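A quick aside before the break. I want you to see a complete sequence-to-structure record at least once, exactly as it would be stored in a machine-readable document. Don't worry about memorizing anything.
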Amino acid sequence: MKFWRNVELDDITAGRLAEYERMTGRKVAPPVPVELLAEEVFDLRLCYEPVDGVPGLSVFGCLSPARRTVYVNEDFRALFNEKPGLERFTVAHEVGHWDLFEQHSDQKTGLLFGPPASEVLNCRSRGGVPAKFIKGLWCESDNDTFEVLSYLQQRRDAPTVASAVDRYASALLMPKSLLLPAFREANVTSWPDLYELRARFKVSITALVVRLERLKQLFVTEGKQIFLGTREEYAGQQRLF
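That is the input. The structure line, written in tokens, reads:
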């Protein structure tokens, strides 16, 4: 399994955004139009409907590679309205699954029971934990709802896959070319400044902080203080005292 480095993911997502601009003639600006990008660049269909999950697991969304469809769970509509960054990250997460791991794979390998009587879906659950479960055949009689046949022995994505897909989503929603100038322009010194930046990019505050930390722009201490620099620089400064 390939390990994707941050610089590779930045380059890939920057290329996808450039491709979107060429295809649509529209310049990308915050917030990144992730839904339109999924449709225009990858020819993925977005479907908003209830998604049956697994007991104890809340599924925000999932990708059906065979159907080229990203499903966003309408059961969480109230939560998505309250936290739009969650919905957008879910879509970007599934696009990452497609772009990094699924689009060039043999879709037949995902059919565990022979003919297309079942299908492995890549899913994003509460807490951002990616998971896989099996979707049964769609039947008109059950109004196209998902029938969970099994949970693949409680199997979740390998850590390398989970990490790559989440970092891909972060880079797609907060590309360096847009985020770094906005961060410097905002002259961030406090949490309200970060929340304003979060609103501009329509992401969660956690996703924003993690992205800025990876880009070595800031470090949040255990006491929730914002340090403008890296973790290593903060540790060195602390040693001076």
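Two observations worth writing down. The chain has a mean pLDDT of 80. The longest strand covers residues 118-125. We'll return to this after the break.
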